[in-house]
Amino acid sequence: MAKIVVFGASGRAGLQIADTAQARGHEVTRVGRDPGVRPEVAANHDVAVSSVVDLARDPAEFYTEVSRALVASGAGRIIVVGIYTLLETAPGVRVVDSPDFPAEFRPFCLGHAAGVEVLAASTADWLVMSPAGNFGGTPTGRYRLSEANPSDTLTYEDFALAVVDEIDHPTHRHTQLGIASA
Prior knowledge:
Number of strands: 11
Shape: globular
Oligomer: single chain
Number of domains: 1
């Protein structure tokens, strides 16, 4: 079994991921209210999962700092809980790139994107997993990969299954995946 640290384990996604991983027999270190990532905490872990947010900080500064800390930690694998708006609607065109995307949400989305760019420029084994649409619905115990689709729903429980399945059987690397409940 893997040794996993979950940053943001007191939030809805992080809590479900930590609970699911622990139920499968993984050794889980939970880091709750601290919105950042401390590399020393992630050191010596097989996997570092980041489900953190700090709405009081500049998103680009925060998410690049988080990604740098994850890379510096030396964790064997990094999985980041991403956001729907960075998924592509066509090759090279993300939801956030749409001309009618609300301007007030762009800084937060582009802050997430800046964090992904830090991961992409590194030699780390990383993956960003995002809901393909909106969180909600009734857990199905199943999930599927999906393109960006605002009508797709994903429960936190089904999302946690997808994340822990990827920990158990690493299949995707250096990319962002959209996940929907099946």
